[in-house]
Amino acid sequence: MKKNIFAVCDLEVEYALNFMDYLNQKKNIPFEIQAFTTVENLITYGKHTHIELLLISGRAMCKEIRELDIGKVIILSEGVHPPELDQYPSVYKYQSSSDVLREVMACYGAEKKTMSDQLAVLKKTTEILGVFSPLGRCLKTSFALTLGQILAKDKAVLYLNLEEYSGFEELMGRGFDHNLSDLLYYVRQDNQNLLYKMNSMIQTVNNLDYIPPVQMPADIRTTAWQDWERLLQMIMLDSSYEVIVLDIGCGIDENFQLLDLCKKIYMPVLSDAVSQCKIAQFENQVRIWDYPQILEKIQKISLPFHMVTEPSPSYIEQLTWSELGDYVRNLLRKEKG
Fold first, then answer.
1. Quick check: 123 pLDDT over 60?
2. If DSSP codes are grouped into helix, strand and coil, which group holds residue 52?
3. 3-class DSSP state for residue 287?
4. pTM, two decimal places
5. CB atoms < 10 A from the CB of 322, how many?
C-alpha cells in the first residue's frame, strides 16, 4: 500500500526545496512528499496521480489546479491573497517550518474524515519503551529525553511525558498553544481525526517529537485507563512512529497496566537505604497485583550524576553530549550486542 500524496508548490524554489527537506526529515508524517516549483509540473503530475493534500502559494493557484482531483487544498499565504482564494484555508508562509506543518495538519484534520483504515502507514512495529521509577530526583526525565533524542537519529520517535508536574514550559521558557490535555480531550470525544489532531500539536527538539505535557496535574489523575489505552493504540496503529518513549510518573492509577504495555522498562535507581526500600515496596506491589511479567521487563540503571542549575531551552539538546548521553549510547550498544 502506498502513502497518500502531500504536494507542496511554491514558485520560490529555495523555499519549496527547504520545506520539502524539512518534511522528509519528519519520519512521522503519514504522507509521501512531492515538491513543485512550477505550476506546469504540478498540473502534469496531478492529471495522473491523486493528490490528497496540496499546500500551494497564492501566486501559484490557478483555474487548472482547481480542476485537478485534490483531496484538500491549503494556501501558503504571504499575508494577503486574492478574495477568490478565501474559500480555502490558509497558512502564513513566513514562520518556522514546524509551525507551518502543525497548522497544515490542523487544517487537514479539521475537515477530512479520514479513518485509520484508509490511511496506509508504512512502518515497522511500534515499540513502547517505559522510563519509570518509584524514586524522585533520580534523573528519570533527563534519561528519557536523552534516550529519545539518541534513538531519534535513526527512527521516528515520540516522547510522552505522563507526569503530574513536568516543568516543561518552565524548562523551555515558553508556553504551548496545545498540550496533552487537549489530546486527551479529543480521545474522550472519540474524535475520528485523532492522528491529525495529534500531528497539529507535535513539537520537536533535536529530531525528537513530543507533545507538550499537561499543565494541570488533575488531567493526569482523572484520565481513565481506557483513554490512555485508546491514545497509545492510535499512535501504534495509525501513526508512523517506530518508538514511543513513555516518561511515566506516579499519578496514573493504572500504572501497572501501562507498564505492562512496554516492551522494556528502564528504572533509574539510587543506592541509599531508603531508595532501596522504596524499590522493594514497588516490587512487592507488582507481585500482589499479579503483574510478575513487569519485573522481567525492568532494567535497573544507575545514572551518572548530572546537574544543571539554570534551566534553559538548550538543556534538552545538551543532554546528548553530556555524561548521560555517553551512558545511554553505551547502554544501547550493549543491548544490540
1. no
2. strand
3. helix
4. 0.85
5. 16
